[in-house]
Amino acid sequence: YHDLARVELGGVHARPLISLLHSRGFALPLDVKLVERHPLGSQAFYPLGPHPFLVVVAPDESGTPGTPRAFLTGPGQGINIAMNTSHGVLTPLEAVSDFLVVDRGGPGNNLEEFFFETPYEIVG
Prior knowledge:
Blueprint: E1 15-23, E2 30-37, E3 43-47, E4 53-58, E5 60-61, E6 64-65, E7 69-72, E8 79-81, E9 86-87, E10 91-92, E11 97-105, E12 112-122
Antiparallel strand pairs: 1-11, 2-12, 3-8, 3-11, 4-7, 4-9, 4-10, 5-6
């Protein structure tokens, strides 16, 4: 399984990061209060177990995130979030889960958070 994700790295002295994340499980319904985006790099998340996770993305509407959309991954399915795409936080469902993450390291501000005035409810 070669070349599974396009790793995007912008900015001066950027370098790829490979990390392991351990996250608690979440339950639905879930309120989406914020999304984040990374203007200098992509993020890839690959589960190290069989449990699905919720992916939340929001389209760009003149520089701010629009209405979030959510989908559930299949067992063992990973995702790659393109540079500058607004997305929710890592949200495994059913159980505590571990993930391999490919991200951007290096100088520069690579995190922008946006808080919705009214949270969006994901019901399942």
